[in-house]
Amino acid sequence: MAGSLPIGLATSVSVAASSANLGPGFDSLGLALGLYDEVSVETTASGLVVEVEGEGAGQVPLTSDHLVVQGIRRGLQAAGLDAPGLVVRCRNAIPHQRGLGSSAAAVVAGLAAVNGLVAQTESQTLTQDQLIQLASEFEGHPDNAAAAVLGGAVVSWTQDSAGAAPDYAAVPLRLHPGIHLFPAIPQRRSSTAETRMLLPEQISHRDARFNLSRAALLVVALSERPDLLLTATEDVLHQPQRAAAQPESAAYLALLRRHGIAAVLSGAGPAVIAFSTEPRLPTEVLGEGAARGFAVAEMAVGDAVRWNSGVVVPS
After folding, report:
1. Dihedral sign, CA of 131, 142, 134, 53?
2. Where along the chain is ATP bound (predicted)?
3. Any known ligand binding at 101?
4. Which of 30, 98, 111, 222 fits a disulfide with 75 by CB distance 3.0 to 4.6 angstroms?
5. What mean pLDDT, rounded, does the chain reach?
6. At residue 187, does pLDDT exceed 50?
7. Is 95 known to sit in a ligand binding site?
8. Binding site annotation covers 102?
9. Cα–Cα distance, 244 to 235 (Å, whole number)
10. How confident is the model at residue 314 (pLDDT cuts 50, 70, 90)?
C-alpha cells in the first residue's frame, strides 16, 4: 500500500522552455531556453485546487487533466506515495502551442514538485534519469523533456524493448559560449500532433544519410565549431514537410538562412530559433520578423529544473 504525504508540505519549482530537433536532430537533440514557468504545490487534507496565471490562463483545464497535476500523480506513483489533497498554482511564461516545450515543462514541473515534497520526508526522491524517463513517457520522445530536466543542450535517445515500454535517456552537451540564441515567437499557434501527421511514414536512404550527417555535424558545431552551424542545421526530414502548414514560419526561416544565419523550426513550430555567433541580428532581419508577426529577441540558455522544499511561490 502506498504511503501518504503529510498535510502542510509545500514546494516551488522553476522549469525552462525548450527547443527540440534543432533542425536535423529529429526527436533527439534539444535545448533549454531561459524562459520559465513557476509552479507551487501544497499538500492539503483533501481535494484538488488548480490555479493558472499567465500563459494558458482560461484555456487549460483546472482539474486532474492539467499536465502539472498529471506529472505530480505519476511522480507520486513512482515514489510509492499519494497525497490526500493538493493545491497547485502555476505562473506560466512559456507560450503554449508554439514549439517551445510548454507541455514537457508542465510534466517536468509536476514530477519535480514531487521531489520537493518527498525531500521533506524519509522517502527517496526521483533521480534525474527517472525524471527524464517519466516525463518522456508523456511526450513519446525525450528531447524536450530531457532539456527541461537537465538544462542546456542535450542529446537524447530511445531504446525500444520488445513487449515493454521504451527506455528514454539523455546526456548533456556543452554549448559553445560564443553561440547566441534568438527565438522568434509568433502569435500564431500550432498543434504538434497535427503537424506530425504531415510527416511521411517512410523516407529515402538518401534523405536518411543527409540528416545523419547533419545531426552528427550539429553536435560538433554546437560544442566546438559554431562556424559550421549553417550547414549543420540543414534538414530534409521534417521542416520542408511542415512548411505548407506554417507558411510564415517557413518564409522567415528561409529569410534568416539567406542572411547566413543558422535558423531552424523550434520543435514542430511555429516558433523559429536562430543561432548566431554575433550578439545582434541584422536590423533588416529583425524588421522582417516584426512585420511577419514574430517577437525576436536574444535569450539565454535555460537552466536545469529546480525545486525548493517548504517554499511556495507567492500568489
Report:
1. positive
2. 95-105
3. yes
4. 111
5. 94
6. yes
7. yes
8. yes
9. 16
10. very low
pLDDT tens, residue by residue, 27-69: 999 999 999 999 999 999 999 999 999 999 999 999 999 999 9
CA neighbor of 131 nearest in space, from 123, 174, 152, 144: 144
| Residue 247, annotated as binding a ligand | no
Cα–Cα distance, 270 to 97 (Å, whole number): 8
18 phi and psi angles, rounded to 5 deg? -150, 155
C-alpha cell read off for 312: 511556495
What's the whole-model pTM score?
Answer: 0.94
- Is 256 a known ligand-binding residue? no
Distance CA 203, CA 34 (A): 34
**Residue 100 is assigned to a ligand binding site:** yes
CA angle, 237 as apex, 234 and 243 as ends, to 5°?
85
d(CA 156, CA 127): 16
The x, y and z cell numbers of residue 160, run together, are 525500444
105 is in an annotated binding site: yes
- DSSP assignment of 105-171 equals HHHHHHHHHHHHHHTTSSSPPPPHHHHHHHHHHHHSSSHHHHHHHH-SEEEEEEEEETTEEEEEEEE
Is 249 annotated to bind ligand? no
Residue among 223, 253, 303 at smallest CA distance from 37: 303
The pLDDT, as a whole number, for residue 201 is 86
Name residue 46's amino acid.
S
Nearest to 14 by CA among 148, 177, 176, 191: 148
Q: Residue 204: which residues within 8 A CB-CB, separation 6 or more?
A: none
What would the grid cell of residue 307 be?
Answer: 525545486
CA distance 127 to 133: 10
As a whole-number percent, the residues of the chain with pLDDT over 70 amount to 96
Residue 270: asked if its preceding bond is cis (omega within 30°), the reply is yes
